[in-house]
């Protein structure tokens, strides 16, 4: 994996399950076999169309849909990763599996709507702006500070504290993700404390759209922990005993 | 019996060798890609010191000549994954495995780590050689001219005596263990440069992650070795880039064909031009050169 210093990683501070960016991922179970058509939006515009085949014969438990690659933001048109064997816009998954909508690079700001390709189907489409029970929203926060975690659709709210990284007290890789369940008027736990980069998984118990906003930034102890070279310094002038005597007179 | 015999004492031979040694220079640079990293080097060196021994079996033994690396720089460039997010399991399977995981994003960037080892000294431990006489026709002489006219034009034919090595042995470059500290500082500087545009908190985050792993451990993981940095650099320079082999070849080539230890014109002038007369010269043939423990001996016959 080629590491990135994509500026969106440190300029996009908030996260929104209805507007996916590099550090926000939605996971959706696809339980009913069939052919599905997905539409990728950023705002009102349709950015791309993709297809998901939910197939009992498939061994794929997970289909990774890189939304950036669907729009051409990613240069790797077809990485042919898990669940993606028929081209960059066609995915296959087992009915007991999940589709993972993520953004590998760029500014993002996407939501997806997936519905059965069969026009006569009465199944409700999946809309990533309105997550249901069984869906998951995985968020990763890098910028230290205190955040509000609001479920816009279910009107519940909690708080997330991201601690400041301290050399010597920082686990790399970060600890296991924390899980937050959120429904109507419930948000458990109300307050979580995580390390930067530690995963936060939201489990909706009611129609949900999660929005994470920075309330108060934590800029650390005020002194960067990055060691700085001492460099050369002029040594302090040490007066000779003679000079001291002259001054004392 | 030869018509001409010239001898140079062992001391005189050593002085001739000193001139030959001091005229030697070698420089080269190269680069290569080795999977997770690319590396390059630049080297320039000269020779110094050493001993020369003439043997009765006609061989010359040269030992302990210092190879002074005036320039010896190497650089390794690689992607530094300072900190990775995602990659964790979101839906475990019943067998303690993972059914669904979040794609991983590694935060970091390309860095280059330059190492300056200039000033290191290696050694030509042993050269075993004999003398070799060669006839030289200047490739720059005008076409179609006689030997005499070629000489008048400043391109005379020559007999040349070379030291012709049977083998050249050079000690591998020995990188001191102290390079580990230098390497760590250089990596730090490279990381600072990479972090240039980042906000302070992001720098602290990356730095905390890098320090948690350990700079040297992190770099070793990327470059794919477990031992000492010095050993890795030695392998890179001596075995992968084969600088020692290149210098051995260059020394052998230089001794055997680039710089004669002794040379003279053919035909050989015995009376200079003067009084309206052309110079008097005698042609030399069948030149041979050898040594014994006391001197170098060059023999030849007169005649075209």
Number of strands of chain A: 17
Biggest interface found: A-B, 51 and 42 residues
Structural class of chain A: mainly beta
Q: What distance lies between the first and last C-alpha atoms of chain A, to the nearest angstrom?
A: 73 Å
Overall geometry of chain A: globular
- The average pLDDT score of chain B comes to 91
- Order of H and E elements of chain B: EHEEEEEEEEHEHHHHHEEEEE
Per the principal axes of the C-alpha atoms, what is the gross shape of chain B?
A: elongated
**N-to-C series of helices and strands of chain A:** HEEEEEHEEEEEEEEEEEEH
Largest sheet of chain A: 7 strands, mixed
Mean pLDDT of chain A: 84
**Which band does the percent of strand residues of chain B land in?**
35-45%
End-to-end separation of chain B in angstroms reads 17 Å
Characterize the structure shown.
The complex is a heterodimer of chains A (249) and B (304). Chain A folds into 2 domains: 123 residues, no CATH class; 88 residues, no CATH class. Chain A has 3 helices and 17 strands. In chain A, the strands form 3 sheets. A 7-stranded mixed β-sheet of chain A has the order 5-7-2-10-16-13-14. A 5-stranded mixed β-sheet of chain A has the order 1-17-11-12-15, with no helix packed on it. The longest helix of chain A has 8 residues. Chain A is globular. The relative contact order of chain A is 0.18. About 3% of the residues of chain A have low confidence. With 304 residues, chain B is α+β, with helices and mostly antiparallel strands. Chain B has one domain. In chain B, strand 12 and strand 13 form a beta hairpin. The mean pLDDT of chain B is 91. Classes of the chains: A mainly beta (249), B alpha+beta (304). The interface between A and B is large, with 51 and 42 residues.
């Amino acid at each position: 994996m080629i590491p990135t210093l994509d500026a969106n990683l440190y300029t996009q501070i908030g996260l929104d399950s209805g507007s996916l960016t590099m550090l926000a991922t939605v996971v959706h179970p696809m339980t009913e076999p069939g052919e599905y058509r997905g539409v990728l939006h950023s705002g009102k515009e349709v950015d791309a169309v993709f297809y998901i085949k939910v197939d009992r014969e498939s061994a794929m438990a997970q289909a990774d849909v890189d939304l950036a690659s669907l729009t051409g933001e990613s240069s790797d048109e077809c990485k042919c990763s898990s669940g993606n064997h028929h081209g960059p816009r066609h995915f296959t998954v087992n009915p007991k599996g999940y589709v993972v909508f993520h953004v590998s690079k760029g500014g993002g700001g996407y939501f997806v709507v997936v519905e059965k390709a069969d026009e006569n189907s009465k199944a409700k489409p999946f809309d990533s702006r309105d997550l249901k029970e069984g869906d998951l929203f995985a968020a990763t926060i890098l910028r230290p500070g205190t955040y509000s975690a609001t479920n816009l659709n279910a009107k519940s709210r909690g708080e997330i504290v991201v601690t400041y990284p301290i050399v010597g007290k920082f686990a790399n890789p970060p600890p296991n993700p924390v899980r937050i369940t959120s429904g109507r008027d419930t948000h458990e736990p109300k307050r979580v404390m995580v390390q930067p980069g530690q995963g936060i998984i939201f489990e909706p118990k009611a129609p949900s759209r999660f929005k994470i906003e920075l309330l108060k930034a934590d800029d650390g102890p005020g002194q960067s922990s990055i060691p700085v070279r001492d460099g050369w310094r002029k040594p302090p002038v040490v007066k000779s005993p003679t000079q001291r005597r002259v001054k004392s007179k | 019996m030869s018509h001409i015999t010239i001898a140079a004492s062992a001391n005189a031979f050593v002085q001739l060798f000193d001139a030959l040694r001091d005229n030697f220079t070698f420089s080269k640079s190269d680069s290569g890609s080795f999977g997770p990293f690319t590396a390059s080097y630049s080297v320039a060196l000269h020779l110094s010191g050493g001993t020369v021994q003439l043997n009765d079996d006609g061989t010359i033994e040269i030992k302990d000549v210092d190879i002074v690396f005036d320039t010896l720089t190497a650089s390794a460039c690689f992607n530094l994954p300072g900190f990775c997010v995602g990659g964790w399991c979101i839906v475990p399977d019943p067998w303690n495995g993972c059914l669904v995981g979040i794609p991983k994003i590694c935060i970091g960037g390309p860095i280059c780590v330059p190492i300056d080892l200039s000033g290191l000294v290696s050694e030509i431990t042993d050269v075993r050689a004999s003398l070799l006489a060669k006839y030289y026709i200047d490739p720059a002489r005008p076409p179609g001219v006689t030997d005499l006219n070629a000489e008048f034009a400043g391109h005379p034919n020559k007999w040349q005596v070379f030291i012709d090595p049977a083998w050249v042995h050079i000690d591998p470059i020995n990188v001191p263990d102290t390079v580990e500290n230098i390497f760590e500082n250089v990596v730090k500087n490279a990381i600072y440069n990479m972090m240039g545009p980042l906000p302070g908190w992001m720098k602290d985050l990356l730095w905390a992650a890098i320090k948690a792993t350990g700079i040297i451990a992190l770099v070793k993981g990327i470059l794919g070795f477990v031992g000492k940095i010095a050993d890795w650099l030695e392998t890179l320079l001596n075995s992968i880039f084969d600088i020692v082999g290149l210098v051995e070849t260059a020394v052998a080539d230089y001794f055997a064909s680039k710089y004669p230890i002794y040379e003279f014109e053919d035909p050989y002038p015995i009376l200079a031009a003067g009084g309206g007369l052309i110079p008097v010269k005698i042609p030399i043939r069948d030149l041979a050169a050898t040594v014994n423990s006391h001197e170098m001996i060059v023999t030849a016959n007169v005649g075209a």
